Every structure is written in C-alpha cells, then in structure tokens.
Amino acid sequence: MTAWVKSQHYMDRELGEVSVRVLATARQFTARVRGGIVHLTIPRGVTPEEYNRIFDSMKPRLREALDRVVSPYCDGFRFETSGWSFELRRSEIVPPLHIVSTAKQTDGNIHYVFEYGTGLDFSDTGHARFMSGRISDRARDITLGFIIDRARDIARRLGCRPAGIKVSRGLRVLGHCTSRGVVSLSEKIAFLPDELRDYVITHELAHLTHMDHSADFYALWERYYGRPVAPLRRQLRGFVWPVIG
Fold first, then answer.
1. pLDDT digits (tens, 9 = 90+) for 73-85
2. For site-directed labelling of 70, which of 43, 162, 193, 217 has its Cα 20 to 30 A away?
C-alpha cells in the first residue's frame, strides 16, 4: 500500500464511496463503477499530487457512469421502510405531465400515494428524475420531521455535542461532519431501515472526535453503534434505492 493512502475506502464529495487498490504491477490508473461505488486501481509509489491530478481528470467520466439511469418506476411501484411508505399510481385524471401526492397516517406510519399523468414515461431519464425528485421531497419531510430528532436523541444518549445537525440532499454522500462540528445528514437516509439510519448517524457523531478513518475512529464508531459495523456496511452497499442519484 502506498504510504500516504490511509484507507482503502473513503468518501469523495462528488462521487461518493471510492475503493482504492494499490498494485505493484499496475502501470496506470484504472477505474470502474460497480454497485454505485468507484473502484480505483493505482500503481505503487503514486504521490498525493499525482493521485489528485489524475483522479480529477477521470471524474467527469465516472460521474457520467454513476448517473446512468435505470428507472424502477411503473404503475403500482411500492416502497416501504421504517415509519413510512409510498406507492405510484398512473391516473387518467391527473394532467398528463403532472404528479400529485397525498398522504395518510395510520398507527404512526405515513403512506404517500403519487398519482402521475399518462404523459409521463419513466423510460425517459427526465421523467424518471422528475418522479425521483418528488419522492425525495417527501423523504426530506420525513428526515426533518423524525430523523433529525432521532439523531439528536442518539447524540444526547452518547454524550455527543454537535454544533448543529442539518439536512443535505446527497445520495452518494449520506453524511458529513465539518471541522466545526456541524453534522449533515442526507434526506436520503429516510429510505433506510432504522439500523442503517443509526449506522450513518453514529458514523458522523464519531467524526466529532476523530475526523479521519483511523483505528481509533472505527473503535469509537463501533462503541457508539453497539456492535460491529462491517455487516451494516455490506448491507448498505447492497441497498436498492428507490430514487435516482
């Protein structure tokens, strides 16, 4: 491993999770996208300056690969997670290129119905992103209404004192902690089950003490979470998002 590479996995602010492998036999940088993760192979002996320059030049192509849309949407599509759910219904009444959402609360759970007009074709990237944006708006409501409170409760229980907790919009980066102690949680964690929401929340709270991904960071994160986090990492990587990044 090249000495300055402190971790084989890190979060890039533009591309999300990046997995780096250093090979003595590699003669050039190679990159591919698999499962929403950028996998990068680099030669041994690469300096940080060379890494940043070459990786930055590769980012437009990698971003395009990450943005390729395979729409899951269709009439009757349904998604359910902790505390809320939604479904899609094609409607002859809704104007052809419109989406109308309604909500119903039962036993503490919120169910949204998105009725969409007959002019929307989700094989079209623009139409699929339109629906994804409306669904993400509701996820933001859920995050602001419930998950931020959950994060504050976890922080109090653990004795953590973030300078603030706010909501962001990323899908590739689900959380961030600034050097000033402000924690950002993506609205997209509303789609996750509770155990993965807590995985993201405790990760960022651990960064209040350790801004790196050192062994001390992982030890603190697992103490905060209460059990090993590796199985949750695998679960999160395999999670099928109902929105488009």
1. 999 999 999 999 9
2. 193
